[in-house]
Amino acid sequence: MKEAIIQNALVIKQIGADYTVTDGYISARPACSPPACTSYRRPVRGLYRCDKFVVDAFAPLSNVNLALWNVMSATNRPSMLFSSFNERGVVLQPK
Q1: Could you report the per-residue pLDDT of 38-51, keeping only the tens digit for each?
Q2: 49-67: average pLDDT
């Protein structure tokens, strides 16, 4: 799971992103062309606030840990995201 999160963050970095102070965000997405997609799609540059970047980087959790993903995606303040991690025993800082 850790590798999937790192790879997702690297994809976001390669595509590029802008940063905002507002609550809304746009997920960075790579280009896609047939046969993987029905039609060609240009890459989408992301738009993030610090906490929403973390939520998007952790998107692989949506298939593995639905409870944590639901809490993460529902937060609207950076402090709430940090608190939701702490309540579930997720270590955010190296020991």
Answers
A1: 889 899 999 988 77
A2: 75
d(CA 16, CA 20): 14
Say if residues 31 and 39 touch (Cβ distance below 8 Å).
no
Written in H, E and C, the secondary structure of the chain is CHHHHHHHHHHHHHHCEEECCCCCCECCECCECCCCCCCCECCECEEECHHHHHHHHCHHHHHCCHHHHHHHHHCCCHHHHHHHHHHCCCCCCCC
Q: Which pTM value belongs to this model?
A: 0.62
Question: Which one-letter amino acid corresponds to residue 21?
Answer: V
Residue 95 pLDDT = 45
